[in-house]
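Work Package 3 committed the consortium to producing structural models of liganded targets before the mid-term review. Because experimental data for this complex are still outstanding, the team generated a predictive model from sequence and the ligand definition alone, so that downstream docking and mutagenesis planning could proceed in parallel. The input record is reproduced below exactly as it was submitted to the modelling pipeline, together with the SMILES string for flavin-adenine dinucleotide.
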Amino acid sequence: MSEVLTQAKPNDKERNKEEIIYDAIIIGGGPAGLTAGIYLSRARMSTLLIEKALPGGQAILTEIIENYPGFPLGIAGPELMQKMEEQAVQFGLKIEYGETTEVKIKEDKEDKEDKVKIVKINNKEYKTLAIILASGAEASKLGVPGEEELRGRGVSYCATCDAPFFKDQKIVVVGGGDTAIEEALYLTKFAQEVTIIHRRDRLRATKILQERVFANKKINFAWDSVVTKILGKEKVESVLVQNKKTYEEKEISCHGVFVFVGNIPNSKFLNKLIKLDEKGYILTDDNMMTSQEGIYACGDVRKKLLRQVVTACGEGATAAFTAQKYIEELKGVSYK
Ligand SMILES: Cc1cc2nc3c(=O)[nH]c(=O)nc-3n(C[C@H](O)[C@H](O)[C@H](O)COP(=O)(O)OP(=O)(O)OC[C@H]3O[C@@H](n4cnc5c(N)ncnc54)[C@H](O)[C@@H]3O)c2cc1C
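The resulting structure, written out as tokens with the ligand in place, is given here.
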């Protein structure tokens, strides 16, 4: 039995003295999951958060977050996330490390009222009344020859992690949204020259970022262009780029290729238990309820318009509150 299990308090839904049934299990320790953890633990729900890597999620991949309220000078991504983790743990959130591989509803033919859900991590199974899915998303790949082979040898998806390796070198950034532009600006602190390759003739990024990027002398652009191949023997040496309007191909010599072309949701482990959209994002109502009773979703793994820290936190709070009401109802708690 893990330390977490021995420490956790069994709740009154426990059928078997050996068996612990958590009030809630949160899958994913990014901004959405940690916020849900703060709310549930503060409401004195026995809550376990499961994280496959480090708590903090994608927000630890960025040097500075300027648009999270309360920090007029911005705050470093890792610092903000460390504070969220501390805050959640301080209220009693338990964190267990491991990858969730399956979520299922317990089938008990004798007890039709059984509302227990099961979360699998490798060979272990945890039982819970409610689940909050906060597994976020990860970087989409370009899917071109050379990308997989040269990953970690010039191909990167994280500027904060890898920028120092490219001091005074030439790099390309692929993408035109907020993340691509923020990261391109950050990369100019290290690189000699940054070329932004974007498939359209204008950027999607927020205006303030556009102003900064157009004013930066180290940055130039390849508009209407897509990367078709990444070249290099041991390390990245260049990229082949095709103009989508003229079909002209050119080779841009570079040492690094930073890819920021969107996200794919971490929802594969749900294996059709929950309704998803065609891209794999979880469908919920306004209260973060999914298609399965007692299972909620929040943050980047949800189908929604704006994927940011502030929206992930807001949805984490809503999911926790909706889950709390559900758990209290199951346990017959009433405040009337
Ligand atoms: C480079 C970069 C820069 C960014 N800059 C900003 C910015 O300036 N401002 C802003 O507001 N937003 C920014 N964002 C977006 C922001 O980071 C995300 O919107 C936010 O982190 C989403 O939070 P989340 O909790 O929903 O998911 P995530 O942050 O993706 O966290 C999900 C967590 O779940 C874990 N997980 C996944 N699958 C499993 C599993 N099966 N079992 C257990 N754990 C699992 C992951 O390891 C991860 O820790 C940036 C993102 C990137 C990549």
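Reviewers should note the following from the model. The radius of gyration is 22 Å. These observations will guide the Year 2 experiments.
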